[in-house]
Amino acid sequence: MKRNKRGRISNAFPDVRLRRLRTSAAIRDLLQETRLSPSDLIAPIFVQEGLKRPQKIGSMPDIQRLPLAGLVKEVEFILKLGIKAVILFGLPSNKDDQASSAYDSKGIVQKSVETVRKQFGDKIAIITDVCLCQYTLHGHCGLVTNKKVDNDRSIATLAQVAVSHARAGADIVAPSAMMDGQVQAIRESLDDSGLTDTAIMGYSAKQASPLYAPFRDAAHSTPGFGDRRTYQMPYANAREAMREVETDIEEGVDIVMIKPAIPYLDLIYKTRRATKLPICAYSVSGEYALIKAAALNGWADEDAVTTEFLTSIKRAGADIIITYQAKKMAQLLAKR
Ligand code: PBG
Ligand code: ZN
Fold it and tell me: Which listed residue, 23, 109, 287, 295, has the most CB atoms within 10 A of its CB?
């Protein structure tokens, strides 16, 4: 039992001084509870079919759409920084009502996966986004029947897409369409195709968020009618988010994801307490754009804010983080 100079029990000031643990950079570093590492980070890559040279994205400064021919150099750079995983997003030349270029064995994502795998073997973990919105004329994440997003037809197509990515060599497929039963349909199709080692990272609690706007600009995937609120999560509902996590786990997901990240630290924390599965947080395009816009105006210190945001996401309970700042963060960590 702790007593003060007068012999009284004390667990408070002046016997307790929390500032003792903050007196120098060395002590603060010694006691840092949450540490980022480049191997926590997943770098997103946009690959566009038929592109001649890298293309800037207006609402996402420093992020580019890459041609297939630019992919090897990009992944080489990412690996040099100590990052071990990429998530690939494809922009096809052709869109149609069936999203047929999404499951084409010669599609842009399938070719990208093959290219990266051939060049780097298993040095890099390849994750693919499995969705239909970049591949459909209407821009919805599922197939449309009579002006409505048709859940059960969509999950069959999503399963085809996932199998085609896995056949090309993806380690992890990440369904982001928010269709009910998508994880189960994908797991069954992967297993039936002998792809039992391919893991599934579910976009489990994906909020209907305005923070995806820059991504839709980048990926040409803005819906042509309506919005995504009949399938993405209403962001005011934490219990419903946990049901999304639960159903994904029951359907056989290997990694759960919460998305976006910063406004949803509570959901990351709740998920951490509810499951032993690895948790991924996706710090989305809008989170990136907000920091970038402020930094470009001189209103925020980009490096410091990025470090704070990503550390907070990990502190809340995320094991891994998809972030457009992956390369920058890895460079900052190397400088420390
Ligand atoms: C496709 C997809 C989206 C994002 C990831 N996969 C867009 C959307 O659902 O509209 C958003 C990522 C980001 O904003 O960075 N379904
Ligand atoms: Zn989608």
Answer: 109
Question: From the centroid of its chain, how far is CA 1?
Answer: 48
Rounded to the nearest angstrom, the distance between the alpha carbon of 275 and the centre of ligand 1 is 24
Residue nearest to atom 8 of ligand 1 (CA): 212
Query: What digits encode the pLDDT tens for the residues 33-55?
Result: 999 999 999 999 999 999 999 99
Tell me the pLDDT tens digit for each residue of 187-233: 999 999 999 999 999 999 999 999 999 999 999 999 999 999 999 99
Which domains occur in the chain, in start order? Answer: 36-334 (3.20.20.70)
Name every protein residue with a CB atom under 6 angstroms from any ligand 1 atom: 129, 131, 133, 141, 176, 212, 215-216, 228, 284-285
Angstrom distance (rounded) from CA 315 to CA 90: 31
pTM for this predicted structure: 0.97
Return the residue whose CA atom lies nearest to atom 11 of ligand 1. Answer: 212
- CA-only gyration radius of the chain, Å: 22
